[in-house]
UniProtKB/TrEMBL annotation:
Domain HTH gntR-type: from-to ranges: 4-71
Matches recorded under SUPFAM superfamilies: GntR ligand-binding domain-like, Winged helix' DNA-binding domain
Name assigned to this protein: GntR family transcriptional regulator
Lineage: Bacteria, Bacillati, Bacillota, Bacilli, Bacillales
Keyword set, alphabetical order: DNA-binding, Transcription, Transcription regulation
Native organism: Paenibacillus violae
InterPro entries xrefs: GntR_C (IPR011711), TF_FadR/GntR_C (IPR008920), Tscrpt_reg_HTH_GntR (IPR000524), WH-like_DNA-bd_sf (IPR036388), WH_DNA-bd_sf (IPR036390)
Length: 215
């Protein structure tokens, strides 16, 4: 049986290559080639692929290899609608109880996404943009929602990173403006403005996905 550390090493490598768009959607990966690249046997690689398959990032094709799974537009839009619903619930909580999310954590995420933008590190930019949303809804203290959010973050990062690579002509990094405005409105407890920003961002993202056929 492969050691846990080798499986984790293989998982981390393949996962990162997918997230960065180095292993593009629709690419067929070879267990043998992956094992050679990592200087290990196929056993830990196979176990890592099983985990990635469970995450919904790849699918094993008998006698053909491992396919980097291309998510459907519907799946992407469904995730976006779930995130929007969570934000609406958080807003209702803000308005009803007068509580605000952890502003320090929101500011940290905002600063990190701005720093990633300056470095043109799009993968990190998307990651921290979504972490901002995670801390925004954490005020609900709903472990099921947060767990679902954690599961979806990888997929949204993947969709966005691949889109960034194949649509260089499109404007990107719009999350900076949105999260900056959200942070300021949240700190001021201007819930009407927060609601307006959240809805406008949702509508813009939905229109873009429909127009481009992807996130």
């Amino acid at each position: 049986m492969a050691s846990v550390s080798l499986i984790q090493t293989a998982y981390d490598f393949i996962h990162r290559q997918i997230m960065l768009g180095e292993f593009m959607l629709g690419t067929l990966l070879s267990e043998n080639e992956l094992a050679d690249s990592l200087n290990m046997s196929r056993t830990p690689v196979r176990s890592a692929i099983t985990q990635l398959e469970h995450d919904g990032l790849v699918v094993s094709l008998k006698k053909r290899g491992v396919l980097v799974k291309e998510p459907s537009l519907k799946e992407a839009m469904d995730i976006m609608e779930i995130l929007y619903a969570f934000q609406q619930l958080a807003l209702e909580h803000f308005e009803t109880h007068g509580e605000v999310p952890d502003l320090k954590k929101l500011k940290e995420c905002l600063d990190l996404q701005l720093e990633a933008t300056e470095r043109d590190a799009y993968y990190l930019y998307v990651k921290y943009t979504l972490q901002f949303a995670y801390y925004f809804i954490s005020i609900l203290n709903n472990s099921a929602m947060l767990k679902m959010m954690e599961l979806y973050i990888d997929k949204i990062v993947l969709y966005a990173t691949i889109n960034f690579k194949i649509t260089p002509h499109e404007p990107h990094y719009s999350g900076n403006r949105v999260n900056q405005a959200l942070y300021e409105a949240t700190a001021a407890k201007d819930w009407a403005e927060v609601r307006r920003i959240v809805k406008a961002s949702h509508d813009h993202s939905r229109e873009r996905m429909v127009r481009l056929g992807r996130i």
